[in-house]
Write a structure and sequence with these properties.
The chain is of the alpha/beta class. It contains 11 helices and 6 strands. The protein folds into 2 domains: 127 residues, Rossmann fold (3-Layer(aba) Sandwich), CATH 3.40.50; 78 residues, Orthogonal Bundle (Arc Repressor Mutant, subunit A).
Length: 225
Amino acid sequence: MKKSIGRVKSIRVFLVDDHPLIRQALKHAMLHEQDMEVCGEADDREEALRGIAVAGPDLAIVDLRLRDSDGLELVRDIRDRHPNVLSLVLSMQDESMTAERAVRAGARGYISKREAPGKIIEAVRKVLGGEIYWSEKAAAHIASKFTSPSHPGNSSAVDQLSERELQVFEQIGLGHSTSEISVSLHIDVSTVETYRARIKEKLNLKSGSELLQAAIRWCLAKAYH
């Protein structure tokens, strides 16, 4: 995140929503934040990708329904083309149906448009602070799915993990990269990769994506139960 110099804002946010009133409301909310600014906006995927490439924001707030495309496609594009730009999905759709899909696509958070502007500001700060943000409804839904005995990565299987493996698992669930986990736990990147492989084997997970989802669910279950 860029450091503040004089009046320069430290948090740069790019808005992608096909409703001008929504964009205006978000800009108004951020106007009152001393360290936050809207550095650009767009109402469709192509315009957003061009704008993000120029503006270089810290985070993009993306609506799931855009004028010419699915917002999840844009989230994937941002993840692949601009890995330093985080994404927060803002939507009116049913959180229980779409929150998981958003995170799988690369979003670091999901919040409903029904939330007050202050909650959206809170979500922006948490995502930029390294957390994955979920609305309460989405979090409760994901946590309840996690508690299913048949679900990969359930709590009884997690009990098999060693203390260090559990630390790595939690860091993964909080959205931290392998290099970030290495720094946080003071271990080599190769050691983190070894722990990831062991965790996948113990929890019967086939891919990095399944590992991430299981870790997110575990963190949510820990927070909400």
